[in-house]
Write a structure and sequence with these properties.
Blueprint: H1 8-25, H2 31-58, E1 78-80, H3 81-94, H4 97-114, H5 119-123, E2 132-133, E3 136-137, H6 145-148, H7 155-163, H8 176-195, E4 202-204, H9 205-213
Antiparallel strand pairs: 1-4, 2-3
Helix pairs in contact: 1-2, 1-8, 2-3, 2-8, 3-9, 4-9
C-alpha cells in the first residue's frame, strides 16, 4: 500500500498493524508469535471501539449493536489468513468435537452456494454465518476484524438492508471511523507479514474455516508456513 495516499490518521493505524507484525517476526515468526500478534491486534481495536462507544454515549449517538442482534451475521464476511489461523486455534480449544463438526458442516454447505457467486451477487448474498448460534456468535472472542468494526447507529437500517439488499438506497447506518481504523490496522498487519515472506490471503469466512481445518487432513504444526492458509 502507498502510504503517501493515506491521511495521517490512516497512517497511524496502518503503522500500528505494521509494528505488531514486525515485532512478531523478530528473529523468525513462529506459530505462537502469530497467535499473540493477532490477539494484540484484536485487543487494540477492542480498546478503540470501547472508547468510541463511550464517546458516542457522551454525545447521545446511538450504537444499536447488541447480543442477539444478528442482521449483519448473514452477510459475506472476508478475513485474512492470520485471522482464520487465530480463529480456528481458538475454536479447537473452546469447542467440543460435535460443535466443531457442526460449524464446519455449515461452512461447507454455505460455500457450496456462496462460493460460486461473484460481484454484486456475492456482496448482497444472505446466509447465516457458520458461527451463528441462537442469534449470537459462538466464537465472539475470536471473531475477525470485519465483525469487530461493524457498528450500526440504527438497527432498522440493518433490517432494511437484510430484507432488501438490492435496493439502491438501502445501507446500514454504520460508523465510518472504526471501519476505516480496523481496515488500516489489518492492512498494516498484512503488509508486515508479507514483508516477512509470509503468503497471505483474503478469504470468505466459509472458505477460511474449511482451509483452517484442511478438510480433516493432518497439518504440520511446527511451522505456520506449512499450514494450508499460508501456502
Amino acid at each position: 500500500m502507498d502510504q503517501s495516499q493515506l491521511s495521517e490518521t490512516d497512517k497511524a493505524f496502518f503503522n500500528d498493524g505494521l509494528s505488531l507484525a514486525k515485532n512478531a517476526l523478530g528473529e523468525g515468526l513462529k506459530p505462537q508469535k502469530l497467535i499473540q500478534a493477532t490477539r494484540q491486534q484484536f485487543d487494540a481495536i477492542n480498546e478503540l471501539i470501547s472508547a468510541i462507544e463511550q464517546e458516542a454515549k457522551n454525545h447521545n449517538v446511538n450504537i444499536d449493536c447488541k447480543k442477539g442482534c444478528e442482521w449483519c451475521c448473514h452477510q459475506p464476511v472476508f478475513a485474512t489468513s492470520h485471522e482464520f489461523y487465530f480463529l480456528f486455534k481458538w475454536m479447537k480449544l473452546n469447542f467440543s468435537e460435535v460443535e466443531l463438526k457442526t460449524v464446519l458442516q455449515r461452512a461447507f454447505d454455505n460455500f457450496q452456494k456462496r462460493g460460486k457467486l461473484e460481484g454484486e451477487a456475492l456482496e448482497k448474498s444472505k446466509m447465516p454465518c457458520p458461527l451463528l448460534q441462537n442469534g449470537s456468535c459462538s466464537a465472539y472472542q475470536a471473531r475477525p476484524m470485519a465483525c469487530r468494526i461493524y457498528l450500526s447507529m440504527n438497527e432498522a437500517s440493518c433490517i432494511t438492508f437484510y430484507e432488501n439488499p438490492y435496493h439502491a438506497t438501502n445501507f446500514p447506518a454504520l460508523l465510518e471511523f472504526p471501519l476505516q481504523a480496523g481496515r488500516m490496522m489489518n492492512e498494516g498487519m498484512n503488509e508486515g507479514l508479507r514483508k516477512g515472506n509470509t503468503s497471505h490471503y483474503e478469504l470468505l469466512m466459509e472458505e477460511g474455516l474449511l482451509m483452517a481445518h484442511n478438510n480433516g487432513e493432518p497439518i504440520d504444526e511446527k511451522s505456520y508456513k506449512d499450514h494450508p492458509l499460508f501456502k
